[in-house]
Amino acid sequence: MSTGNEIERSDPDPRDVQIFSALLTPHRSLNRTGFLAVMLFLSVVSFVTGLAFLMMGAWPVFGFFGLDVLVIWWAFKANFRAARASEEILVTPSELRVRRVSHRGQVSEWTFNPLWVRLDQEVDEEYGIEHLYLISRSRRLRIAGFLGPEEKASFYKALVGALNAARRGPTYNPVT
Question: Can you give the pLDDT of all 176 residues of the chain as single tens digits?
């Protein structure tokens, strides 16, 4: 008996199945609590040191210690703002999509055919992988700039595997 509220189930299009998905963000080792602790420590040290200079009669130095704390606070805030940037890389059998969001929120997107794209790398013998590039026709796009050399090597292997899987095409599994 049909009630009219049933949802018709359809199999997903095999071209839309995600083979690989990565969201890359800049690494920041200092969280909000750590930031507050560092700023509290710097403020106390600057205030106490500034008071010592104030008591010796060097009152302008007191203001410079406050200015130092303000400049450090501004530098941390700029660093945290830059951490809002991200890069998303998605591979399906029909496309490779790169979506980059700047720290200001500006979005840029590139779409490639995974059959025609290749991965290139610049390697320094001492440092390791410095840069990764997606190359397709006349376009060359630098990716994974947030990652360190070891992370880039691991990411490179995973992305090469995903591109190879995309080139093989979708597989049909009759048992689901």
Answer: 444 444 444 555 555 789 999 999 988 888 889 999 999 999 999 999 999 998 998 888 888 888 999 999 999 998 888 888 999 999 999 999 999 999 999 999 999 999 999 999 999 999 999 999 999 988 999 999 989 999 999 999 999 999 999 988 766 666 65
Q: What is the DSSP string of 98-148?
A: EEEE-TT--EEEEEE-TTT-EEEEEEETTTEEEEEEEEETTEEEEE-TTS-
CA triple 152-169-19, angle to 5 deg: 40
Q: How crowded is residue 74: how many other Cβ atoms within 10 Å of its Cβ?
A: 10
How distant, in Å, are the alpha carbons of 52, 59, 127, 132, 133 from that of 121?
Answer: 55, 56, 13, 4, 6
Query: pTM for this structure?
Result: 0.71
- Retrieve residue 71's tokens: 């400049």
